[in-house]
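Posting for a labmate who doesn't have an account.
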Amino acid sequence: MRNYLEFEKGLAEIEGKAEELRAMARQNPEMDVEEEASALDAKAETLLRELYGELTPWRKCQVARHPDRPHCKDYIEALFQEYTPLAGDRNFADDHAVMGGLARFNDRPVVVIGHEKGHDTNSRIERNFGMARPEGYRKATRLMELADRFKLPVITIIDTQGAYPGKGAEERGQSEAIARATEKCLQIGVPLISVIIGEGGSGGAVAFAAADKLAMLEHSVYSVISPEGCAAILWKDSEKMREAAEALRLTAQDLAKLSVADIVISEPVGGAHRAREDAISSVGEAIENLLKELEDTDGETLVRQRRQRFLDLGKSPLAL
């Protein structure tokens, strides 16, 4: 059963009527409904293109959070071979909100790290809805050190509304763990490629995204704070999230203009959740192309260029 977003109500009605007609025909084979159902399909396709051709920043946030979008686990299973998960931070525990380990990408050995939100109630609770605790960031730091030691490229897959803000996480040094992970991103002398597949929220995302190259899916978002959080702070009213989303410049298209994102990966019409295999394949092609750009660059140059990349952010006139 397909999940529809708030702004897709009209689309849901049309597609629902087409499915209802076909269900009736399956029960009564003498009924000929295909012509009418096909007309509804064409109408739904037109409406879908119209809706997704002019998405506002707030609607992009909704699409980025769609529960049916492919998650980190889906990308790892589809794009990486011989994935061997490595668990724990060697200090406190293993954080299931962060996946990571050794793998092969197109027969190239790599380290892959990512946030995993889960796909149903049980897995979302287990994964803490993709909100990592300190041990998750310390696990990521450990894996990046491993990659640097064995000269393996690092690929990070980002999809989180932010780091977990709970009492236990703060007691165990959440901010320090995020800072250490960000620092490690800037220190390793191997190619580091980050892909934002849904939400990239706050420092919880930056800790994986201080990379040589940052790719974003067309309907993903990346921001220092969620629109609801921003609205609650600025206007004391979380219902002003639409205005906040506009002001935050959080869409992939805005961030490409500001040189925060290097490439924007096109999604199928209607979003990645409507054609998951196509979206995953597009991400795989983007990663391959970005790795080729970096594979002949020595470690010292990578570190220097990566640091300079972040020092240069904000110098664009568009950022003013």
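Reply:
Got it, the structure tokens are right above this. The mean pLDDT is 93.
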